[in-house]
Amino acid sequence: MDLGLVPPSDAFPDADDPGPDPASGLRLVVCSACLLLQLGPTAPSAPETPIAVDSQTALDHARASVARLVEDEGIAPGARFAAYDSGHGCSWAPFLQEAGLEEADATGAGDVDVLVDVHHLMHDEDLDAVVGRHAARLAPGGVLVAEVFHGRPLVTRTLVDTIRHGHFTYLTLLAAEPLLARHGLVVTRAQEVPSYGGSLLLTARRASEDPVVDPGVAEVREGERRDGLADVAALQGFGTRGRVVARAFREHLEDLRDRGRTVAGYGAPSKAPVLLALARVDRDLLPFTCDLSPAKTGRRIAGTSVPIRSVDDLLAARPSDVVLLTWDLVDEVSAQLAARSAGTGWAPRIYVPLPEPREVSLPTWPGDRNALRQNAPHEQAP
Asked: Chain-centre distance of CA 380, in angstroms?
């Protein structure tokens, strides 16, 4: 899949910087031998990332994942752990410490009982080498825990904006099992989780220790096979579908503009430059977006002139439609906007571009998220 020239996703230029921004070819390829989804040969170096704000959704997921890990794997207080994360926030380390585990230096040597890698693997160009280093650090009886972007929803739900510079690999269980086996590890648990639009949470232990393998591993493996993840030809159709998604996004914004609707975005995630570049969306269709991170305020989405403002600016502007660029947080963002706009009479329509384009209304406040009214996938606002 060739996405064309795309700027680095972690670049957030100052809003008054006219550009042009550097851009490089972004291609996703699949290995016919090992089925690994990976970036093609052109990728720019990633600039420094402004500090993001951890979403409550991500924090809740991290806390629950650690609690489940401790229970399922029988990890006792005092066990030593090393935590590697993506650098974009929401480390599991605080929750592992709350559970009574003792942190070891993630950059140093020495055996650990638990090695946790949360969306760190994909940031290393040499995937085999980093897995080898992880395996070498495991103490006897130790467990490796890895959460990665899952190739299954990426392909089947056409999550085209998940592909970005700096994320070199996208794993499936079908690709992860032989990768781990080369380093003497066997997958003992596999669970599909909703974080970041669709991730895969794996645990692995040394094969030489003859660990028990949970039945969920076979279930995930068979699900991937049913969805064509073992078929290179099926994977190649992803590119065509990605362009359909981008075209639908642009057409929706054009329709809102033509009907005189006022529009703003919510969120400035690292995935935004990819979607906006592929859809050829700029400030004429999306006048601004907002973000909770103060470090991003006053900047713009790379490759565009779309400025990033504060959430207060969004509330003051009161657009009729809000485009949710952080579409994987639709429930959380809708609840936040409902709370902050309560009593003001502002009730925008929320457009969620992925995985299925749809419009939603803010939930009533106070109330629960079940009050969120979801309309037909392509229903237009009046």
From this structure: 27
User: Where in the chain is CATH 3.40.50.150?
Assistant: 31-236
Question: What fold, for 246-371?
Answer: Rossmann fold (3.40.50)
Nearest-angstrom CA–CA distance, 81 and 105: 9
Pair of tokens at residue 108: 């140093």
User: Which two three-digit tokens encode residue 330?
Assistant: 């639709």
Q: What tokens appear for 279 in the block? A: 């859809």
Q: Domain 31-236: give its CATH code.
A: 3.40.50.150
Q: What is d(CA 241, CA 354) in angstroms, rounded to the nearest whole number? A: 12
Mean pLDDT confidence for 331-354: 94
User: Which H or E element spans position 274?
Assistant: helix 272-279
Highest mean pLDDT among 13-27, 40-54, 251-265: 251-265
Contact 348, 322 (CB under 8 A): yes
- Whole-number Å distance between alpha carbons of 164 and 275: 10
78 vs 87: CA distance, rounded Å: 26
Characterize 97-129 residue by residue with b for buried, 16 or more Cβ atoms within 10 angstroms of its Cβ, and e for exposed: eebebeebebeeeeebbbbbbbbbbbbbeebee
Closest CA to 127 of 37, 29, 189, 188: 37
Closest CA to 8 of 205, 254, 272, 192: 272
pTM: 0.90
Going through 150-253 in order, the beta strands assigned E by DSSP cover 169-170, 185-193, 199-206
Q: Distance of CA 177 to CAs 127, 187, 217, Å?
A: 13, 6, 10
